[in-house]
Write a structure and sequence with these properties.
The chain is about 0% helix and about 45% strand. The chain is mainly β. The N and C termini lie far apart (about 40 Å). A hairpin with a 6-residue loop joins strand 4 and strand 5.
Length: about 130
Amino acid sequence: QVQLVESGGGLVQAGGSLRLSCAASARTFIIYTMGWFRQAPGKEREFVAGISRTGGSTLYADSVKGRFTIARDNAKNTAYLQMNSLKPEDTAVYYCAADRTLRGPVSSTTSLYDYWGQGTQVTVSS
C-alpha cells in the first residue's frame, strides 16, 4: 500500500509554468511506475505523462509533449511534473498515480494504476 500526496497546483496565466510534486509514503518507491493524469469538469480522466521505475523511460500525451516534463527522485520518494507554456485547456485536477506491476513500456491506461493521490487543482487563465 502506498499513499500519494500531490502539491504545487494553483492559478497561473496562460504561458506560465507550474511544478507539481507527488510525495509517496512507500519505502520502496522505486518499484512503482509513476504517472500523472488530469480530469477537467465534465470530462474523463486522461493520461498526461508517465515515468518508469528508474526514470529511464517516459511517455507523454500528445497534447503536452514538448511542454511538460515528468521526473522522479527515488531518494526523496517524489515524482514531479514540470508544466511550461500552460494553456487554458490544461485546466484540470491533476492526479498522480502508482503502478506496482512490472511491465515493459510505461502504461497510459488509467485502470492499470493501483494507487492514486487526492488531486491538485491547476487553473490556467487566458
